[in-house]
């Protein structure tokens, strides 16, 4: 992996940029272009510009998906009993340890892509701040995704996260809910919104052996509710016989379904929450945004951080249509699980069945 432990020696020696101020008026930044309520936030405008133009390149693509994934994998590394720093950047600084955790499969590629930008801007940001800023900026590359607040001033990480804190795609619903509950997620709606929303703009690497960027739903470049339909379509979950353990035979060619998503959509503890977001874009975006903000503050004291939300660009409006069934399928292909409400009626896409293309990788030419 290109992005290596060399980061540790650099970032642990850097000062923290954190200035809390009581200013309420916007003032011109030293660049003569941007304005900010808090002058400490001025240093972040060039970082945001660099991320948008040179990392994400204005696309809700592989780099944006990876930055969002990194937010979760770093933040969730905290436990009231086992310790960990939460949203502190330890997954970058102590990557040689945390990348050995099975649930962090593929994060090495994400760090290889984001690492040069972290190094470039390490004079003004700690690893924890950079990961959260990159995640917030990644979301506004995706139509329909919420604009989430960003707070700056996280200390440098002092140790790797304990193992076993990142939910695994093969975990049970009970295990997933317990893990989220330990860090303050109290309802099924919160958990489902974060998991489903993240997977709405994501793809899998190596879940299908030797295949990268396999989408989780038909619209991986749009933050929408299609994921909640595609996962509810009938599929066969293998448990070791007839297929690789955890593999789901899906009805949408070119996509892959995580075992954890399959179970969340069908378990009695979460299936109605999963179904509730189908074609309910505002509710899903709101719950997701609240959940990601909660993740970004794990292990942090918000009162000691500087609110630099003003540097996050405006969100892109949702321009997609309602979630639909793939060509050739009907409502009979939905595996109804929620016992208290009927699945929303969906139209079927016209034309013959198609294959969803893989997401181009960030280092592809």
UniProtKB/TrEMBL annotation:
The record's active-site residues are 73
Which residues are noted in the entry as heme b-binding?
A: 199
Broadest EC class assigned to this enzyme = oxidoreductase
Q: Does the keyword tRNA processing apply?
A: no
UniProt keyword terms in alphabetical order: Calcium, Disulfide bond, Glycoprotein, Heme, Hydrogen peroxide, Iron, Metal-binding, Oxidoreductase, Peroxidase, Secreted, Signal
Span list, region Disordered? 344-365
The answer to whether the entry has keyword ATP-binding is: no
Looking up InterPro entries in the UniProt record yields: Ccp1-like, Haem_peroxidase, Haem_peroxidase_sf, Ligninase, Ligninase_C, Peroxidases_AS
List the cysteine pairs that form cystine: 29-42, 41-308, 60-142, 272-338
Gene Ontology terms describing biological process: cellular response to oxidative stress; hydrogen peroxide catabolic process; response to reactive oxygen species
Name the source's superkingdom: Eukaryota
Query: What is the name of the protein in this document?
Result: Peroxidase
